Amino acid sequence: MSDTILLVEDDSTLSMIISETLQRDGFEVLTAGNGEEGLRIFTGRGADMIVADVMMPRMDGFDMGRRIRQIDKNVPLLFLTAKSDIDDIVEGFELGGNDYLKKPFRMLELIVRIKALLRRNVKEDNSFKIGRYTLDMSTQMLTHPDKEGIELSLIEAKLLRELAVNAGQTVEASTLMQLIWQRDDPYSRNSLHGFIHKLRHYLRHDPSISLLNQRGIGYMLAVKR
User: Whole-angstrom Cα distance, residue 137 to residue 166?
Assistant: First the structure.
């Protein structure tokens, strides 16, 4: 599953260059030309990371960042800025930014910083974006911005994590059973089917998510972009 980067940049030429570079490196890229559009895309579709210019029309990057932090406290946020004033840099970090890169910059440095932030986010937060949902393995909570959070059982959390890590790919039923019960037998297979049914129910508030039964093989978590 490739990570999705939300790129918010009002310079259309620079946005195209960054977007093409990220796509060549295996990322999926969503683009917006101002903070209002970026906030709307993130609220509706989510992203694994945000790269945002600071100076933009309609809503600047800092204001967008503040509003995004009210929705998601963990998504990595990297600011692109032509400013070098230390007060501006401090403001970016205080509102919840994770890093900044001063313009002009080399694309290789941007890629390195993005990958470092994504690795750090998985390691420290142990959380996974699934459409509009977030699964936090440290608390076993499945949260949706518009719904009350659900505390999953350990089995439910482990199953959903395995499916999320392999989103878009079929995970064999035997693999899931070995992960949870360390055995593959008819009783475990029936139990697995029951837990999958529960997960479908929990994820029902995001129509972009499908938990598919690949008959005779296993299950696949699909998230439409």
Answer: 16
